[in-house]
Amino acid sequence: MTTISNRPFNTLKIDDSCKRKHTVTDDDLIMFAKASGDLNPLHLDDVYAATTAFKQRIAHGMFTGGLISAALAMDLPGPGTIYLSQDLQFKRPVCIGDELSIVLSVIEKHESKPIVTLHCEVTNQDDKAVVTGTAKVMAPTVSMTVQTVELS
Amino acid sequence: MTTISNRPFNTLKIDDSCKRKHTVTDDDLIMFAKASGDLNPLHLDDVYAATTAFKQRIAHGMFTGGLISAALAMDLPGPGTIYLSQDLQFKRPVCIGDELSIVLSVIEKHESKPIVTLHCEVTNQDDKAVVTGTAKVMAPTVSMTVQTVELS
Questions:
Q1: Is the CB of A18 inside 8 Å of chain B's CB atoms?
Q2: Going from the N-terminus, what domains does chain A have, and what CATH number goes with each?
Q3: Measured between alpha carbons, how far is A41 from A145 in angstroms, rounded to an integer?
Q4: Do A70 and B146 touch (CB under 8 A)?
Q5: What number is the average pLDDT over the span B98-116?
Q6: CB of B146 within 8 Å of any CB in chain A?
Q7: Residue A145: phi, psi to the nearest 5?
Q8: Strand (E) positions, chain B?
């Protein structure tokens, strides 16, 4: 049984941050293709991808966006967070085997509502930014610990 | 065998649009949870979700973002498109069974580079916007038809 705890609005400070790591797998791309319906062969077909400028299969850009959203939902602020908006800049391709670091940091707290803005950056094993962006969320106002769901 | 064709930059006109439909399933949420690592019970646990303000499980916000990215990659401009940036506003929750319409429309063409800006809107069966946003992409410059990958 795994539980996750949140960081309520009143405990958050500017520059608070979290870091998650994720190594990209073939399964990630297949799962994301199934979930999104994006069956473009650039993500799924080695032979086709070798003929493109990328020379190999690359992850869907929004897959990396999904890693950012997971960090918001699981870590900072965590359970109880309501997603308001997100912008994403896709800087470099992400390939299978890439070791990604997802870092979120609080850059702004709203005065009168529990709204928080976070800078989001995903870098690869060469410390190069692959995706950067900004998220705006309604942070939870009460402490909460919830049990995550184990998927087979 | 399914093929998809693109819309090269020089054929695109302002207000060109595409529309895809998708009915949200339990499997979608499970697939997206696996792909992103977002195991928050709001998306996966009926009993927990019933205790929240949403009263039922809701889709991950970025799942709906993934539907937008799939429309860009598969339809408009389609194969050969390179994703540059995306912003998303999450307007309303998306639930299992919701019948979503994903509409993209060209709103700007760059003068000197094959860069296109598209308005993106996802509405539900009640014609209410659930996610809106803007995508900037490098459009393909040559016509291309590619075979999509069938996933079991």
A1: no
A2: 3-24+60-143 (3.10.129.10)
A3: 40
A4: no
A5: 96
A6: yes
A7: -125, 125
A8: 3-5, 17-23, 82-90, 99-109, 115-123, 129-138, 145-147
DSSP structure string for B73-84? HHTSS-TT-EEE
Parallel, antiparallel, or unpaired: how do β-strands A115-123 and A145-147 relate? unpaired
ipTM of the complex: 0.95
Q: What would the pLDDT profile of A97-133 be if each residue is shown by its tens digit? A: 999 999 999 999 998 899 999 999 999 999 999 999 9
Q: Is A141 on the interface with B (CB under 8 A)?
A: no
Q: pLDDT-based confidence at A1, cuts 50/70/90?
A: confident
Which chain A residues touch B76 with a CB distance below 8 Å? Answer: none
Cβ–Cβ contact B44 with A under 8 A = yes
Over residues A23-53, the pLDDT tens digits come to 999 999 999 999 999 999 999 999 999 999 9
pTM, two decimals, is 0.96
B113: which 2 tokens?
């580079």
Residues from chain B contacting residue A30 (CB–CB below 8 Å): 151
The DSSP output letter for A112 is S
The H or E element containing residue B97 is none
Q: How many CB atoms lie within 10 A of CB A108?
A: 12
Among partner residues A40, A48, A150, which is closest to B73 by beta-carbon distance? Answer: A40
State the best of A19, A58, A88, A94 to mutate against chain B, taking most chain B CBs within 10 Å.
Answer: A88
| pLDDT for the residue numbered B152 | 77
